[in-house]
Amino acid sequence: MRGLNRRHLLAAAAASVPLIAQAQFRVEIAGVGTAQLPISIPNFRDEGLAGQAIAAIVRADLERSGQFRVVEANVPLSETSQPAFGEWRQRNVDALAGGSVTRLADGRVDVRFKLWDVVKGSDLGGESQAIVVEDARLAAHRIADAIYEKLTGEKGVFATRMAYVSKVGNKFTLWIADADGEGARDALNSSESIMSPAWSPDGREVIYVSFEGRKASIWAQSLQTGARRQVANFRGTNSAPTYSPDGQQIAMTLSREGGSQLFIMNRDGSNVRRLTTSSAIDTEPVFSPDGKSLYFVSDRGGAPQIYRMSTGGGGVERVTFTGSYNISPALSPDGRTMAFVTRVNGNFKLAVMDMASGAVNQITDTLDDESPSFSPNGRLIVYATRANGREVLMTTTLDGKIKAKLAAGQRDMREPIWGPFGR
Question: Which of these, 305, 301, 289, 235, lies nearest to 263 by C-alpha position?
Answer without folding.
Answer: 235
